[in-house]
Amino acid sequence: MANTLDQLVDQVRENRIWRSIFRSGTGESNLHKSLVVQQNVFLHLFSIKARKHTLEFTATWYLGAMTFGTFMILVITGMLLMLYYHPSVPQAYADMKDLQYVVSSGVFLRNLHRWSAHAMVFLVFAHMFKVFYRGAYRTPREFNWVIGVILLLVTLLLSYTGYLLPWDQLAYWAVTVGSNIASAVPLMGVKIRFLMLGGTAVNANALLRFYVLHCVMLPLFTILFIAIHFWRIRKDGGIYAGDQSSEVSSQ
Amino acid sequence: MTEDTKPKPAPDSPEEMSRRQFFVKIGLTSVAIAAAGTAAFSYEYLSPNVLYEPSPIIDAGKPDHYPPDSVTLDPQTAIYVVRTGEGFFALSAICTHLGCLTAYNSDLGIIACPCHGSKFNRDGVKIEGPAPRPLPWLRMWMSDEGNLMVDRSQAIAIKQLVRV
Question: Which domains are seen in chain B, by residue range?
Fold first, then answer.
């Protein structure tokens, strides 16, 4: 049985269509294993080799990977929630209530989105603390730390813009307060608030702007910077291993 | 490759520049102009020219709707109509701290903000809390029909009452 199954798998993997998609083919050699990573558009962001102890739990506590995991959950649940949500006043509030009480599994998806959002903010901070206390931000990884700070800011902006979308009292007053904080910027504060809200008060324009930012602009920005963040790990010599002797020379 | 076929080094004098340098400058300048134009257009596009927001001018109704010596909040328009023994005045109900809607407590006779705990008296003067400024007095007048009118967009510096 096992033999026939293996044979079947092999047949599929040697198939011409399969080989036209996955060019590396089968094999156990180092070359083959390298090619699998190198010839995959997603995997090629990562290095083809990793030091074993950098993959152990104690090295990173997998905080970065878990942050990425929550982000993927947020993308998937977010797209599903969009199917039942109209970013208009006052329909947005009714749609949010419909998701909770009428739509099948709506409350599950909404809560999953909400808790993952909280978890992502927590994990981003935890990841940063872990990187900081291990000293993994040092040369040659300073720029990846900067990318990480940008990702932290985008995460907070995603949280903030998502906060308005339920269009309930909490959302309304939280964004009223938040946009008034933005107007405290010297000289151009009032103008920033006007551009942010698309008006002088939190209203239909503000809801639509926050919706577009939350669902399109900020996620695209996040994906772009996540790609750079991952690619830089490879370019900077893999996940920080802790021993300076194995570091890539910065010169 | 002989010495002759090598490209000539760029001229040293500032008046002369090579063809390549010239086109690089032209190119960079046009990109800079286009970027500035894009920034200006983006700014204009993102600033709405027409706002479908409620009018700042509010018809607060007949004066006799308000009992003597009272503070009445209209949560829709975020104003207080205050009637004292001598007349009327209008007060913004938006906290000067971070823009929350305040509420009037008639037992204590104070206006309080639920968000961060600012307190004002019924003249809008700050009693305590993070609010940096008193609640502004708004321009109020009597319409020809005898209704109290308030302009939310105009704060008045000199406190004056509308006498009926």
Answer: 58-156 (2.102.10.10)
Residue keyed to tokens 């080799």: A49
- pLDDT of the residue at B4: 58
pTM: 0.86
Asked if residue A231 lies in contact with residue A241, where contact means CB atoms within 8 angstroms, the answer is no
Residues 5-44 of chain A whose Cβ lies under 8 A from any Cβ of chain B = none
Residues of A in contact with B52 (CB under 8 A): 204
Task: State the ipTM, two decimals.
Answer: 0.79
Model confidence at A195: pLDDT above 80: yes
Q: Does B127 touch chain A (CB under 8 A)?
A: no
Within 8 A of A201 by CB-CB distance, chain B residues are 53
pLDDT in tens, B18-27: 999 999 999 9
* Sequence-distant contacts of A240-247: CB under 8 A, at least 24 apart: A240/A54, A240/A131, A240/A134, A240/A135, A240/A136, A240/A141, A241/A51, A241/A53, A241/A54, A241/A59, A242/A59, A242/A134, A246/A51, A247/A140
Query: Within the 204-223 window of chain A, which residues sit less than 8 Å (CB to CB) from chain B?
Result: 204-205
Q: What is the pLDDT of residues A43-87, one digit of tens each?
A: 999 988 888 888 899 889 999 999 999 999 999 999 999 999 999
- Strands B57-59 and B110-112, bridge-based pairing: unpaired
Q: Which of A169, A177, A208 to mutate to test the interface with B (most CBs of B within 10 A)?
A: A177
